[in-house]
Design a protein that fits this description.
Length: 228
């Protein structure tokens, strides 16, 4: 499959005010963003707990935006279909939970990707995770969506780790990866530019959009980074 990546902006709801979630969602939808990023944390894979499938189902009722659900959980295979039924359009899960004794459990990944899915599936890697684990994955499964974490997952508002951009360059140049590369953590107008230059095409931004006093301007500044 040949896929030509498009540039997209995905505000992360983690930084929104949950006491008025519908308004928060409508606000970014009105500004004009491309996806809604929802962070699911289980208090086990990461030291924080957020939302589950029921919440995603209610969010689905509040917006037309595609829902980009990022699973930071230890057993993603047990929850993918529940998030699909809840209305997720993209579901990403971490490669780290499939690494056992220095090897990726390709069989389990093949099983997941062989099943029929309504949502698009993608894989995530954390800043310390070595790229050597990705080559066998790309050879074995039809992966066209990769999320590169640019902070250690678990919390919003952390500082961008520039070294992760070497992974993005490696994916685009050495591995000739042509699919979507999303970047998540510490994105603002400066870090967005370097992420796009390295080869990312989807920007997740939590604090930079939701905590801004001018969200429209924040989104415009992120879109500026798409210009060559
Ligand atoms: C972190 C989450 C991110 C987070 C990004 O574990 O995956 O999506 O919301 O937040 P900011 O943009 O504030 O770094
Ligand atoms: Zn995320």
């Amino acid at each position: 499959m040949v896929y030509y990546p498009e540039y997209k902006i995905a505000p992360s709801l983690l930084a929104a005010d949950y006491s008025k979630l519908r308004e928060e969602i409508e606000d970014v939808e009105y500004i004009g963003v491309d996806l809604l990023h929802i962070d699911v944390m289980d208090g086990h894979f990461v030291p924080n707990i957020t939302v589950g499938p029921d919440m995603v189902k209610d969010i689905r009722k509040s917006t037309e935006l595609p829902l980009d659900v990022h699973l930071m959980i230890t057993h993603p295979q047990e929850y993918i279909s529940r998030f699909e039924s809840a209305g997720a359009d993209i579901i990403t899960f971490h490669i780290e939970v499939f690494i056992k004794e220095n090897k990726v459990d390709i069989t389990s990944l093949q099983k997941i990707f062989r099943e029929k899915h309504r949502a698009r599936l993608g894989m995530v890697l954390n800043p310390p995770t070595d790229m050597k684990y990705f080559q066998p994955v790309l050879e074995a499964i039809p992966l066209d969506f990769i999320l590169v974490m640019s902070v250690n997952p678990g919390f919003g508002g952390q500082e961008f780790i520039p070294d992760v951009l070497n992974k993005v360059r490696y994916l685009r140049t050495e591995l000739q990866f042509k699919g979507d590369i999303e970047i998540d953590g510490g994105i603002n107008h400066d870090t967005a530019r370097s992420a796009i230059e390295a080869g990312c095409n989807i920007l997740v931004a939590g604090s930079y959009i939701f905590k801004s006093s001018d969200r429209k301007k924040a989104v415009e500044l992120l879109r500026e980074s798409f210009k060559k």
